[in-house]
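ok so dumb question maybe but i'm new to this and my supervisor (M.) told me to 'just get the structure for ATP-dependent RNA helicase' and walked off. so i did the thing. is this what she meant?? sequence i used:
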Amino acid sequence: MASGDLLLRAHAGAPVLARAFPCRLRVPASCRRGLMCPLAAAKTDVAGRVRPSGAAAVQRRRQRDADERLSFSRVVTSRDAVDEDEEDVEGEALQLGAVTSGGESVGVDGSYLSDTRFDQCAISPLSLKAVKDAGYERMTEVQAATLPIILQGKDVLAKAKTGTGKTVGFLLPAIEVLSTLPHQRNQLRPAINLLVMCPTRELANQVATEARKLLKYHRSLGVQVVIGGTRLTQEQRSMQANPCQILVATPGRLKDHLENTPGFSTRLRGVKVLVLDEADRLLDMGFRRDIEKIISSVPRERQTLLFSATVPEEVRQISHVAMKKDYRFINTVKEGDEETHSQVSQMYMVAPVDLHFSILYDVLKKHVAEDADYKVIIFCTTAMVTKLVAEVLSQLKLNIREIHSRKSQSARTKVSDEFRRSKGLILVSSDVSARGVDYPDVTLVIQVGIPADREQYIHRLGRTGRKGKEGQGLLLLAPWEKYFLGTVKDLSISEAAVPAVDSSVETEVKNAVRKVEMKSKECAYQAWLGYYNSNKTIGRDKSRLVHLAEEFSQSMGLPVPPAIPRNILRKMGLSNVPGLRSS
Ligand SMILES: Nc1ncnc2c1ncn2[C@@H]1O[C@H](COP(=O)(O)OP(=O)(O)OP(=O)(O)O)[C@@H](O)[C@H]1O
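this is what came out, is it supposed to look like this??
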């Protein structure tokens, strides 16, 4: 028996091990540190494992916070930042009384907030009033660490864990910069002074909503979004009818406006502050071209802010594409600390693909039964696989909503708004919800199949455990996807045993799968093949890929894999690969 089993028995009693869904325990880092939860108020996670109670977690954080204060360190960890201004930075932070020790995003009282109040900072009375109306009193750690440096006019690359207030972190100081510029109230097409780039439409809308809150009393400043999903002319009309100095945009649609909206490029010459939210995503290959074009369309003399929960080394290397050489890297995640939240329990499960629907159903039923306020996000690899999973789970009478790029924008917005407001819902999503989206009180995040990379795993998981709350994560992998665990081995992910699925559940699931339309299955198969074909590890060996795709097709109840249009096979570089049928 693993040592973790003994610990659990001692602290939580036998019921944990007697559950139908026991986990093979790898003792989480928190337990290895000898910090076990008390029996009282203990909860279980998706694998039936006991999770630390809120009080225990807070106590643990307090202890760690105290330790961190003893080893007071700098917020600026960038080599690039080691310049003549470095002393200033620490001085500023001290003056503000910010918790600059980095590490867990935990403040003095065990919450995710710092001990600095907004009214202790040099921000305008108008902003302060809006911040109060929004219900924010104390700054989060990343806000406290970045605000003084941004107000100094420096370019900033900031890294802080998910759900710790990065949006206000860049919006508030940017609005402060704008509020010092002369603005005419009724100007029809004012210069755009603040441009915020986001990788998804949902995130862009959310950032604009947060900006509107902060602009409540800045009556001469307006905000607009350009995100696509509607006709370009509609956005052009809306921009004309509602003058704005702040624009929140997705890269593709912004480029469209640059190329097709008269006078738009002139308006962009007024940009004083450029923000790349989810900067690592915007700077990766998928967006790089558009972003470079956008950067070349705004003035060189500007302030640039890059924010994300993940900043891989490659992004540091290329950040000069966007920022001045003397930019500051503000990292509120202390070296050696995990990039995920300790109050979010993370599990993984490895099972053959043909069991995945049954396992999902089993995990969801248990979670729904255990938590009346459940709010779950299931991430799938592609839009069409998302659709398929949503359809199967809907057939099983779970309360399912579906969101992905193949849905109309109005449907996406409707589902997104509903999920934000509600409880008792399961959102099946592609990566359109992976980054930045702030759905409150998500209780469980399930990732089915490998995420695109380590960063995406962290961002998806980050939809739960926001603002210091607890949450659970489950990564469901096929045996041949297990290699992915090597990329997240520094995170506290424990293995959960595969639940025993009884035959009645199996039949129920099979019937549900059978009821799903053939078209959905064909599309899912094709999308699945495309996704794993472009995966460096799995896509390398084409005959193995075809064999694995066949397993996936069988999991959808198809005895023979669907045929794929010849031109699509060619685009995927899979023409003439034995085992694939073309149509
Ligand atoms: N100072 C504050 N006090 C209380 N709540 C805050 C404060 N600042 C921001 N928030 C709230 O915290 C939540 C998370 O903020 P936000 O979405 O900006 O996080 P994030 O760090 O950008 O997350 P992600 O990495 O997922 O993008 C939001 O609901 C926001 O309104």
